[in-house]
Amino acid sequence: MTTDNWSDLLAGLGALRHGLLGGDFLQTWKQSDDDLRAVLTAAEALRALRAAGRSARVFDSGLAISIFRDQSTRTRFSYASAANLLGLGLQELDEKKSQVAHGETVRETANMISFLTEAIGIRDDMFLGEGHAYMAEVAAAVQDGFEQGVLGQRPAVINLQCDLDHPTQSMADLLHLKRTFGSLEALRGKRIAMTWAYSASYGKPLSVPQGIITLMSRFGMEVVLAHPPGYDLVPETLEHAARFAQDSGGSFEVLHEMDAAFEGADIVYPKSWAPLSVMQERTALLRGGDADKLGDLEARCLANNARHKDWECDRDKMARTRDGRALYMHCLPADISGVSCAEGEVAADVFEAARLDTYREASYKPFIIAAMILLTRVTDPAGALRAAKT
Amino acid sequence: MTTDNWSDLLAGLGALRHGLLGGDFLQTWKQSDDDLRAVLTAAEALRALRAAGRSARVFDSGLAISIFRDQSTRTRFSYASAANLLGLGLQELDEKKSQVAHGETVRETANMISFLTEAIGIRDDMFLGEGHAYMAEVAAAVQDGFEQGVLGQRPAVINLQCDLDHPTQSMADLLHLKRTFGSLEALRGKRIAMTWAYSASYGKPLSVPQGIITLMSRFGMEVVLAHPPGYDLVPETLEHAARFAQDSGGSFEVLHEMDAAFEGADIVYPKSWAPLSVMQERTALLRGGDADKLGDLEARCLANNARHKDWECDRDKMARTRDGRALYMHCLPADISGVSCAEGEVAADVFEAARLDTYREASYKPFIIAAMILLTRVTDPAGALRAAKT
Amino acid sequence: MTTDNWSDLLAGLGALRHGLLGGDFLQTWKQSDDDLRAVLTAAEALRALRAAGRSARVFDSGLAISIFRDQSTRTRFSYASAANLLGLGLQELDEKKSQVAHGETVRETANMISFLTEAIGIRDDMFLGEGHAYMAEVAAAVQDGFEQGVLGQRPAVINLQCDLDHPTQSMADLLHLKRTFGSLEALRGKRIAMTWAYSASYGKPLSVPQGIITLMSRFGMEVVLAHPPGYDLVPETLEHAARFAQDSGGSFEVLHEMDAAFEGADIVYPKSWAPLSVMQERTALLRGGDADKLGDLEARCLANNARHKDWECDRDKMARTRDGRALYMHCLPADISGVSCAEGEVAADVFEAARLDTYREASYKPFIIAAMILLTRVTDPAGALRAAKT
Question: Rounded CA gap, C388 and C59, in Å?
């Protein structure tokens, strides 16, 4: 593993101004460019400190709570690692053991679990229109509890994937790009193709493509979103991407052909998702608990997906990218044709060639999460890290 | 959050004599007044240290184990926070994963999990006659293991709610009263009404009202227990309350009208519970696994409850209290009429006015639990806290 | 608890040479005698440090992950204690929450959970031919991830029980023998009877008897394996035992009578297991999910077991041992006749006389596991322990 100079990185971090202190990290588009730069630098500093065997325990005590409303392995362990790295104790709020619901009890529970809590990480990505709303409700509750003197500190709410954004993923992806291409500045003019890809499953969340187009459009990149007609994302996120592209001097376009999207791309991110309309219908049916209609929806959706099996990232498509050598990205696990499924998002040979790179991409997530906790909770993060016991 | 002077509190703690070292915290009535004062002072000291950003990690290593035989959120997180604050690692004994049973295996399991364990927190409140017996069995087993040289240290068993007492709740409540009224001495002569209240659920444990009447009667307060005829508590606890009231110069009386109990009260604690006779019948049926008869019992019990819907803490009842401004207490979650249920323990406007106060009441529990662990396990707690790394 | 001089033990540890650094601990027969001696010495040093109240936190951060594919209490808590003792944060990979499978995903998941991970403890003992293979696959994956620069450190895989070996149990047992008889050298010529014993359950794993015969044969002991005809172990392990016995100047023999095995024994280890042929048939049926045939197999197996109820460790059998006072060992929990079952592995009076000794035997396991993590992960363990903060 290449290691950086932690001392330089801490100096850089100390020089950055950001507005994260005392708040949350819910959506990248709510944060300034300076906030994002500070998160990246803090993540790199934390990574370098760990590699150098230096302590990053800026907390002597305190909990980092996680709430997972869906299965998770890599985000769960990334969050656990981030908490541990900073000196926090991890505690999962298992709703089966704890009976948490929306409404009055969210406000109460958020305070009840937060008396000695520094961070609350939440994954809630199954229902369109709910995940972000729930996180915002928790954040408002702990803000109120803190202001009213109920809580001794104001825990930061960290979005571990909602219905709209997946900022710990997209920021880890951005750090991977920064390190692969050398700097954020080097990303200017680079073409990234965020494309739909075929999968024999349905109901995959929209938050990854939405997170990618809204974040990568901020750094002067040529962002291409491609999907078969009908596989739309939440319109709000397209508006953010278009606006950011304009502001940053990059571009944002939507295509409906995978080949065209790959043409000359520096980076490709082929990944399946469910159409917005399906997610909306699914949310209504899940709320109603209608198993028959859910079965119908799944069958219709899979049949529709099956019309787009050619949306596979194979060798021919990769050959269309810049010098045939675009960086392949994926949030993992990928549906690999002939390996983890019969037909899927990516051909086996393409994935195998990129496999270790996707692992590296994932390796930044613990440090990104730790950086988010650090910057929302610690007044002088560079100073605190320098002073951490080693 | 108001902060105290941790240094003064540590000096006060150092001057107190108590008999908790090497033992357990199972029932407040087994502990001396000095023991209780030491727990309160230690809790305040720990709270002040945390607020001042000073370390309270008196343990370098060691586990704090929790055993929850019933769902729990706030006690679970309070225990986790307490363990973390002192430097202990939390480990839950999940009986579904671990097959623990009563009998021979309790003795063995208690030792097997305790080789590096400092505290064992247990919630076991569902079966009358079992919870406390189980905790006492675990405590005897680790005492024997320690005396026989099997264990390197003697873990403290902390009662996180049993069939008879709920000492972490009642002690947190007492600390809330101490801080609200200024001192333990200021509680003398204050009238506290621990009353039953209506709920459309059945089987709620008796440990909270039992814990309140047995503890508050020790400080010269006028303790009033009120419930509809038949909603009796375990007789032993009434005997303790009567004796403590006599010894402390306070009083203890049982009424069967909510209005009369609220009359002139300084503090009200309206909360539902199941009648002792129902809990006894339920315990027998649960042991026998008789689902039909359990359904019958629940129906009968709910019908009986429904005859007492007027036992709701509403504005009119609050108006009867001293200056109409009694302190409202609840262990949470409360059944709030029109909010968390159709008709319940407390009117929405009364609860909303007291809501933040109930959160503050709950906020002491992590520090109370930490204080219990500290005083049972550490020889010179004030000195150890002063020496903790910061 | 008797305490040792930690300083002498650290000096002894520093003088030992071993080959564990950077690797795993999967099977004792893959490790040199020096490796085993280093683990024992490190375990004793860690135990002495803990008893002296000195820190053994050689890690500032990092996770110790556990993967339990079967219920466990004592190994789960031993692993948790070991991780905590060294300063690592425990994180369980619950496959129900995480969807891990064999194949492509093992390689990926092993890396995804390991970005800040120092140890991965795995229990996988239910399927013959699978447990060790799975652990080896995980170990190869993290080795590759480390070499390819994906992981910042190479986590050690610790076998918490597989289909072939149970090294944390057998090494704790060996430490118990070393301390009971005074030294490893004092074990030379001692007769240990690892015998089958009756139980009214079926499907008990083979890893304990296999672990005992392969390990105890390395120190010049007379190792006797006894079981009814047909209750065979995996042949490979008998070959290891025979070879080790020859190399160490001890002996290894297989008998089919319990009385003969106990004759003159210094140590007896009577414990039930399922015949190899049954485990092979069971593995095939479990893979096929054939519930009817599994029921048939269980019935046949229990009927077969029932023909050997005389394989109970009772007072008469104990009388045959050296001076009638052999050391009784068991990995716990034992099937105790008239206590935990009607008829079982050991008579109640024999077990009660040995009960505390079996607890002591178990008490070494947390330190053995910690020693394995320490020696695989830390370059200068004695120096690191001396420098740990206290």
Answer: 9
- C101 in contact with B, Cβ within 8 Å: no
CA distance C63 to C90: 6
The verdict on A155 touching B (C-beta cutoff 8 Å) is: no
* C190/C318 same-domain check: yes
Q: Which of A105, A116, A117 sits opposite B340 (nearest CB)?
A: A105
Instruction: Indicate if A224 and A349 belong to the same structural domain.
Output: yes
Dist. CA B112–CA C365, nearest whole Å: 10
Q: Which residue of B has its CA nearest to C332?
A: B108
For chain A, how many structural domains are there in total? Answer: 2
Using CA atoms, how far residue B67 sits from A195, B30, B167, C95, in Å, is 48, 22, 16, 22
Nearest to C150 among A87, A336, A363 (CB): A363
Whether A105 has a pLDDT exceeding 90, the answer reads no
pLDDT of residue B100: 52
- Across the range B292-296, mean pLDDT stands at 91
| Neighbouring subunits of C (3+ Cβ pairs under 8 A) | A, B
Quote the domain boundaries for residue B69.
6-164+365-387
Minimum distance, in Å, between the CA of residue C243 and any CA atom of chain A = 42
Q: B111 — contact with chain C (CB < 8 Å)?
A: yes
Neighbours of B295 (CB within 10 A): 11
Mean of all residue pLDDT scores within chain B: 94
* DSSP 8-state class, residue B254: E
Hey, are the CB atoms on A71 and C99 less than 8 Å from each other?
A: yes
Instruction: Please judge whether A359 and C108 are an interchain contact, meaning their C-beta atoms are less than 8 angstroms apart.
Output: yes
Looking at the fold, whether C154 and C197 belong to one and the same domain comes out as: no
Same domain assignment for residues B181 and B159: no
Per-residue pLDDT at C104: 56
Calculate the CA A227 to chain-centre distance.
20
Q: What is the pLDDT of residue A98?
A: 55
Tell me if B38 sits within 8 A of B377, measured CB to CB.
no
Tell whether B150 and B181 lie within a shared domain.
no
Same domain, yes or no, for B57 and B175? no
CB contact under 8 A, A83 and C99: no
CATH code of the domain containing B251? 3.40.50.1370
ipTM of the complex: 0.95
In this predicted model, what pLDDT tens digit does every residue of C134-146 receive, in sequence order? 999 999 999 999 9
Percent with pLDDT over 70 in chain B:
97
Give the residue from chain B lying closest to A88, CA to CA. Answer: B84
Which pLDDT score, from 0 to 100, does residue B126 have? 84
Q: Give the whole-angstrom CA distance, residue C40 versus residue C20.
A: 13
User: Which residues in chain C are contacts of A390 at CB distance < 8 A?
Assistant: 60
Decide if B150 and C356 are in contact by the 8 Å CB cutoff.
Answer: yes
In terms of domains, do C349 and C265 share one? yes
